[in-house]
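Tokens as discussed.
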């Protein structure tokens, strides 16, 4: 709905005022519901997301977010947001972008799974999915990340205190998309059964999308 800052829809997660959803944003969500388009509240301000969940008649998703309790970042979700999205049957895609996983610039897979544990413990495994946000993977993308960083900071879309400069190191053991079997293995070793693991790896998002797209 937004990308960190204010737009015609509402306030992003880096806006200080957090004024919420605009009148246009309310009309937009109603139109999205009618058209079968998912309402994605990642990057969006707290009040704007709460307003969006009040307005939407279909489940809302956070395609790539984490838990603020585990790692304090304006890009991560409060427990109130987590509970609200679960109440309407939505899903949160677990984000692997390092600054949001942990304060350690080289987070581990265990750091990432702490977010899974928190969300699942708070609202149940049916509301956890995967949205790793693999963007700066490999040498060429690490080089590109420097230009991206300068641009986003210059335009005010990233705040250096919340978005530290590159290089970015994804959670150890989940360094790139080829490592997804490690995530499956880690979920099972953590005590999530096969059915729960399949829900996290795609089943929960498919359930929600089947409700939105029909």
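Sequence:
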């Amino acid at each position: 709905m937004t990308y960190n800052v204010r737009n015609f829809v509402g306030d992003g997660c880096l806006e200080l005022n957090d004024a919420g959803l605009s009148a246009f944003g309310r009309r937009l969500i109603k139109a999205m519901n009618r058209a079968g388009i998912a309402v994605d509240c990642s990057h969006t301000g707290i009040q704007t997301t709460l307003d969006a969940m009040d307005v939407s008649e279909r489940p809302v998703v956070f395609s790539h977010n984490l838990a603020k309790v585990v790692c304090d970042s304006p890009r991560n979700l409060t427990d109130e947001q987590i509970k609200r999205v679960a109440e309407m049957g939505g899903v949160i895609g677990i984000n692997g972008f390092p600054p949001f996983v942990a304060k350690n610039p080289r987070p581990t897979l265990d750091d990432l799974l702490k977010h899974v544990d928190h969300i699942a413990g708070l609202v149940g495994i049916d509301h956890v999915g995967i949205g790793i946000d693999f963007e700066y993977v490999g040498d060429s993308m690490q080089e590109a990340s420097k230009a991206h960083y300068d641009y986003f900071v210059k335009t005010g879309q990233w705040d250096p205190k919340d978005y530290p400069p590159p290089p970015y190191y994804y959670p150890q053991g989940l360094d790139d998309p080829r490592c997804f079997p490690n995530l499956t293995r880690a979920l099972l070793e953590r005590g999530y059964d096969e059915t729960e693991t399949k829900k996290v790896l795609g089943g929960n998002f498919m359930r929600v999308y089947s409700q939105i797209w029909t």
